[in-house]
Amino acid sequence: MHWAYELAMKTIERNPNKKEYVCASGISPSGSVHIGNYREFVTTYFVAKALKSLGKNVRMLFSWDDFDRLRKLPKNIGGLDESMIGKPYSFVPDPNGKFNSYAEYFEKEFESALKDLHMNEVKVDFIYQTKEYMSGRYSKQIIQALKKRKEIYDILMQFKTQEATDEDRENYYPINIYCDCCNKDTTKINSISKDCKTVTYTCACGNTKTINIEDYTKIKLVWKVDWPMRWMMEGVDFEPGGIDHSAAGGSYEVSTVIADKIFNIKAPLYQGYGWLGIRGLGDMHSSSGNNITPGALLNIYEPEIIRWLFAKYYPTNAFDFDFGETIIRHYSEFDKAKLAYINGEIDEKDKAVFDLCLFDSKSSKFSKTPFGTLASIAPISEFNPIFVKKLLNKVNVEFTEDSIDRLNKTKYWLENYMSEKLYKLRKVPNLEYMANMSERELASTQRLYEYLNSAEEKTESDIQQKLYQIINDPNLSKKENVAIQKQYFKNFYNLLFGTDSGPRLYLFLAAVDKAQYIELLKTQNN
């Protein structure tokens, strides 16, 4: 059984008679929401979609933790200074000047990418925590937490190695107060009334104020109390979390106890998920700038393939993104598996992957040109769809309107990440390179020239077969012939493109008009 359905079934088992199941996730908009954060969203989304397919009513919540404090200045974002640190993300101005706040800029960026990823089979309710807190919705829960602050302190200390003290316990408050003057959380509580409704604080800016918690709404519960409070308020049944929250003594374990002892509820079913990285650069982080956003990934991957990557891996499996040859492999694996899905030649688990990652009836059609083929042929045609189609028709590869988007993604990938693969035919023969080729290499290249220059019809398969007939020596071992093949292909590529590597040669030679390249392979004067 696929992991999303396993989690959906476990969610139902925990509360089999519930009329509506609530699946929740949330992210702090500390910077561009990267594809690692997207795993938080998509894990929840797939479980919600599985619940829906099982006939259950589902509500999916996505909380923007925009009432969290700005902890540090992101490296990749200008226009901010140290004076912003300590303010809620929603109180920090948008350095780009496009939205009402720093938080809103990154929220809308991510929400736009979700639309492009077609994450609309399950209705998602976005919750903005600044709005929730400042509406006074959580005031009673804040007062409740203050009344039980010593119990909360005792719970927290169960998971810490340092020794608890009576003084720390007496002065512990599970809230952060944003100053009414500077809007920072650099405040210290001086006193609190017996009913825990009135608090006096002093801020580092010099402001001292006495506030009524039922009226003053620039107050936020600390994370490990805030999280279970929201489980209670929203009736959450399932929520994932990163490995930092999942560790022994981490946020989920602590919040589970607080949910039980302070808010008298059972914590939701939880699923930890592994970090995603960028090969060679390590884990992604929003504030460091070391990240890939869903929007950036959509420049290269089709939405279905992004969804497929997350659906096929169990949430705890970590993996890296790599914009090298891995892109071709992903497209190839996806196309092959999708064809098997369409033809009913797929097992139950893999079928579930495609049930989750395909998003409409049109997406069930299989009419896309292989990405690797486009990467080989399209640069020679300047990525012009008309010319690409003509070339592909020569080798019996289909190119339809549905393939144009894939062509554009191929172009983006090659131009931005693999410019060395933008092969262009030489305009004149590479005489300098020919001068260093052996007699046998020159003779074999001339044989290829004469074969290609003949009038007979040649298919891609014919050319592939002839290439190896010309190159291989029947008197040598397979291992020795493989070494020779590498040298010969290097020769052909240098004569055609002036590079040691190039597109799939037999495909290129079959698709492109030989008049464009034939003289480059001529090694003898006639």
Protein architecture, described:
With 526 residues, this protein is of the alpha/beta class. 44% of the residues lie in helices and 12% in strands. The protein contains 22 helices and 13 strands. Strands 1-2-3 form a 3-stranded parallel beta sheet. Strands 5-6-7 form a 3-stranded antiparallel beta sheet, with no helix packed on it. Strands 12-11-13 form a 3-stranded mixed beta sheet, with no helix packed on it. A hairpin with a 3-residue loop joins β11 (276-278) and β12. The longest helix has 19 residues, at 35-53. The model is unreliable at 284-289 (pLDDT under 50).
Topology:
Blueprint: H1 3-14, E1 20-27, H2 35-53, E2 57-64, H3 102-116, E3 124-128, H4 129-134, H5 139-147, H6 149-158, H7 166-170, E4 175-177, E5 187-192, E6 198-203, E7 208-212, E8 219-221, H8 223-234, E9 238-242, H9 243-246, H10 251-261, E10 269-273, E11 276-278, E12 282-283, H11 294-297, H12 303-312, E13 319-321, H13 326-342, H14 348-357, H15 371-377, H16 385-394, H17 404-417, H18 431-434, H19 439-453, H20 460-471, H21 478-496, H22 505-511
Parallel strand pairs: 1-2, 2-3, 9-10, 11-13
Antiparallel strand pairs: 4-8, 5-6, 6-7, 11-12
Strand order of the largest sheet: 1-2-3
CATH architecture of one domain: Orthogonal Bundle
Helical content stands at 40-55%
Question: What form results from the Cα inertia axes?
Answer: elongated
CATH-defined topology of one domain: Arc Repressor Mutant, subunit A
For the record, what CATH class of one domain applies?
Answer: Mainly Alpha
Low-confidence stretches: 284-289
Structural class: alpha/beta
Sheet-strand content, in percent, reads 5-15%
State mean pLDDT (0 to 100 scale): 91
Cα distance spanning the termini: 67 Å
User: What is the oligomeric state here?
Assistant: single chain
- Radius of gyration equals 30 Å
The count of strands amounts to 13
Count of discrete alpha- or pi-helical segments spanning 4 or more residues: 22
